[in-house]
Amino acid sequence: MTQTHTEHYEREDGRAIELTYAAPENVVRGGLVVLHEGDGVTDGVRLLITSLAEEGWLAVAPHVKGRPQREDILAATDVTLAWLVDHGVQSDLLGVVGFDLGGVAALLVASNRKLGAAVSVGGQGAGELPVLVDIAGRLTSPWLGIYGDAGDELGASEVEQLREAAAASGAVTNVVRYPGANHRFDADPEAAVEAWQRTLNWFDAHLR
Fold this sequence. Notes:
By secondary structure, this protein is α/β, with parallel strands linked by helices. The chain has 6 helices and 8 strands; from the N terminus they run βββαβαβαβαβαβα. It comes from Amycolatopsis acididurans.
């Protein structure tokens, strides 16, 4: 079974971060930065990392403490991308994926960095919609957004606003809504399976 490893990574310029990663057993297809949820690098995040590695991706999660701000997220992602390049991943085969709060972080990165592909899984409350729409309107990387609308998540009209903003950015985008699924997609197992396959398909299509 694929295992995760954690290491301290430091650049020559002094930038440093803790990273948890998993590597494919065979050929590396590309590298994915996994942006974790609010609780940090949990067992669920480790499972995601190993699952991506089993699909051929060198997957790595930077440990971002507390509730990071925009510059914290971008700085952590930049160092993690450098780690992937150091491990032989070509720049056009780099992507980012985030679940839950990490989904917002992935959208932020996709709007501020030019990567091969980005995926956000999990919605936020409608109160955060103006911020999300503003970020989505500046996308610079191909981006897939996958959202459930159960509980306090984005509803149909909010997801449509996000879709329109992303489309207006000029980047290649797709936004999918699953009625009845929550931000963790554990309320609807069938939706969770399909969302996972959509995620893999997006990276398959854009990182090649």
